Amino acid sequence: MGEAALRGQTWDGEVHKVEQQSPSLVRVELGGDGLEGFRSLGAPDEACVFEFPVPAAAPGLVPNAGRWYSLHEVGPNSMALGIVQHPGGLASNWASKAKAGDTLRITRHKSWFRRPAAAAWQILLGDITAVPAIARIITESAHLLPTRAVIEIPDAGDQQDWPAARAADIEWMLNPQAPSRLSDLVRNLELPPGDGYIYVAGEVAETRAARKFLSRDLKLPNDSFGAVGYWRRGT
Ligand SMILES: Cc1cc2nc3c(=O)[nH]c(=O)nc-3n(C[C@H](O)[C@H](O)[C@H](O)COP(=O)(O)OP(=O)(O)OC[C@H]3O[C@@H](n4cnc5c(N)ncnc54)[C@H](O)[C@@H]3O)c2cc1C
After folding, report:
1. Nearest CA to ligand 1 atom 4
2. Nearest alpha carbon to residue 12 among 61, 59, 63, 48
């Protein structure tokens, strides 16, 4: 796994812009001198742990204020996040009220996407939390190899279109208020011929079931897929 070389190093991102990107996603752009020296890992699903301020009224309720968010975009002294809106979340609540000038500390930086150079195709599956990462994977590589993506969204308005998306075959699956069906999607996959790469990201129980199916049932080699748990229902 790629990881920021300087362990223990931190950066401070200052909010420059906040916008409601879609019904479920808030886009937050961070910048400022506090990001000086921050370097992309070069992997399209790179993510960081951001320390969110704990509301003073409920200090005991949130033991750990660090939350992973993908870098949807990253450049010199700038990055953009897509934060899903859901009930009862520290980070989610923060994003709904975030404003220019707020700051977030970054304490970790890592990536998981390991597509072999020889992969003839890629399949990307995720729920709405994986939209920032999958959008970046598609933007950076769909022109290089056949790319299919299946993305679960809670609201039809979360379907997105951006120029590079047209290079991929994307299916937006509307799944409002329902438990994720990512593992079923993986079980029903029709794999193209040849060696490829499958990336699955979303709710932990679903990605764990997906990993088990790809490894034990399909007996795919470990380097031909990545299944990353992004969030855990109920905790
Ligand atoms: C590598 C990585 C990259 C990630 N990238 C993104 C990203 O780009 N965008 C993004 O939005 N998330 C992303 N996540 C997921 C995000 O870190 C979690 O959803 C996180 O728990 C949200 O924190 P919170 O403070 O809002 O909620 P928490 O305080 O952690 O949880 C509060 C409650 O909300 C529930 N919950 C948490 N997340 C969700 C959700 N998405 N939907 C419904 N219920 C939820 C929990 O089960 C809990 O009951 C990523 C996670 C990882 C590991």
Report:
1. 69
2. 48
